Structures are given as structure tokens and as C-alpha cells.
Amino acid sequence: MILHPALDILDGHAVRLVQGHFDQATEYAADPLEAAHTWQAAGAVRLHVVDLDGARAGAPANLATVARIASETGLELQLGGGLRSEASIAAAIDAGVARVVLGTAAFTDGALLDSALAAHGERVVVSIDVRGGMVSTAGWTQTGTLRAVDAAAALAERGVRRFVYTDVDRDGMLGGIDTAAVARVADALEGELLYSGGIGSVEDLAALAALRHPRLAGVIVGKALYERRFTLAQAQAALCT
Q: Does the CA dihedral 218-163-45-80 come out positive or negative?
């Protein structure tokens, strides 16, 4: 499995939230490019970037910053946050990202999902963000009645092959993971899954690796890295055990 450091951008800064709450943001770098360089120097080859301003507004707000990160680091970026139109998806790809992450739009605009898959294929990732076992959308501000496993199965039937699964209740809490839930979601889809949420120790990473699930391709880690609970090298070693 491959580790993806998380880089969340809010008001032009690199931050981390607690359970997706915008009023509980901790700033880790004034310039997100500084954070990107830090992870690059530590050995990262991929970054998971979230435009939090875009997620809240419904349209990308930090593409210029994303373009700087892509051009000045050469890292493989996947970007989510506010990608809810064909134009915004195209603009993100023009900014240099390798993959675009659709969240809200994948659940509310079937035509957009279909057109994105037709135009960009496996460069399209769908994020299944979950509160209390149910899919949460609109920057994690709205939670419905669709179960994560049902969402994964339905999206797989529509041709989605790359997924991110985030346990929002655990996000930013450093309190550990629910490996059984991760396995259930991975079982329901085709293609590859990245997991995010609650990772606070190398033991959490080792527990994910121990699943040996053929569709669990990687992990997104944010706060634990920024808080120096472990190094990127230690994390990647745990994922390879």
C-alpha cells in the first residue's frame, strides 16, 4: 500500500480539521507549497489535496495554489473539493493534477459523473465520506441515509474504479480505525480503495496492512504526520509489513 500525505487548503493555508468542522482548523503551514515540499523531502511521491474552500463553496477556490504545487514539486496530486462541474474538473486537470476526486457531485449529479468517467476514465476518483455509517456530502455538512457499502456497490456498477473512503467521525481524532468497516467497503467495490480517518499510530497502519485486502491500495494520513506521531518512512514501512 502507498501512503498519501494529506494537504488540506483553507484560506490559503495548509490546515487540518477535526471531524470536518471548519471552525476547528489547525494551521500547519502558511503556504501549502511549504507543506508539499516537506512531504516531498520526506520521500512522498503522492499527495492527497483537498480544497476546503472549494468544498464549502461548491467550486474550486485554490487552483492557482494547486498548480504551483504540481509544477514546483512534480509530485503526483489528487485533488478534491468543489469539483461539481465539467469546467471545474477540466480546470483541475489543467492545473496539473493526476486525479480528480468527486464527492458531492458523484451522488447528486449522475450525468456529471458519467461524463467525467467518459472523458477522464481512471483519473476520476469518488470519495465516499461517511458519518455514522451514512454518506456525507457538501463538504461533510449534509448526511443522508445512503450506507457506505451500498454507495460503493452502486458506484462500481456505474464504472467507478478508484475510491477514497473517509470515516469522518474519526477524521482528525487520532483515535484509531475500524478495520472491519474498511473491509466491508472494500468488499463492495471493484478497483482500488484509499482509506482515510482516525489514523494515529503506526499500529493503525499495520492493522490496515494486515487485512491483506486486494483492493486496499493505500492510506491517506494527515494530522498524525503533522503532529509527528510517526515519520513518513515509518508509516510506509508499516504499510509494507
A: negative
CA torsion through residues 174, 151, 142, 7, sign: positive
In the residue annotation, 204 being an active-site residue is answered as: no
Considering the four listed CATH numbers 3.40.50.150, 3.60.15.10, 3.40.50.720, 3.20.20.70, the one that applies to the domain covering 2-239 is 3.20.20.70
Parallel, antiparallel, or unpaired: how do β-strands 2-10 and 162-167 relate?
unpaired
More confident call, 168 vs 98: 98
Please identify which of the residues 8, 53, 167, 171 carries the catalytic annotation. 8
Segment 2-23 shows an average pLDDT of 90
Cα–Cα distance between 212 and 24 in angstroms, integer? 34
Distance CA 184, CA 88 (A): 32
Q: What is the mean pLDDT of residues 125-152?
A: 83
C-alpha to C-alpha distance for 118 and 116, rounded to whole angstroms: 5
- Per the annotation, the verdict on 23 as an active-site residue is no
All 3 cell numbers of residue 233? 518512512
Residue 98 C-beta-side C-alpha neighbours within 13 Å: 13
**Closest residue by Cα to residue 197 from 175, 167, 232:** 167
Of the residues 129, 167, 171, 204, only one is catalytic, namely 129
Domain ranges across the chain: 2-239
pLDDT tens sequence across 38-65? 999 999 999 999 999 998 898 999 999 9
101-133 pLDDT per residue, tens: 998 889 889 999 999 999 999 999 999 989 888
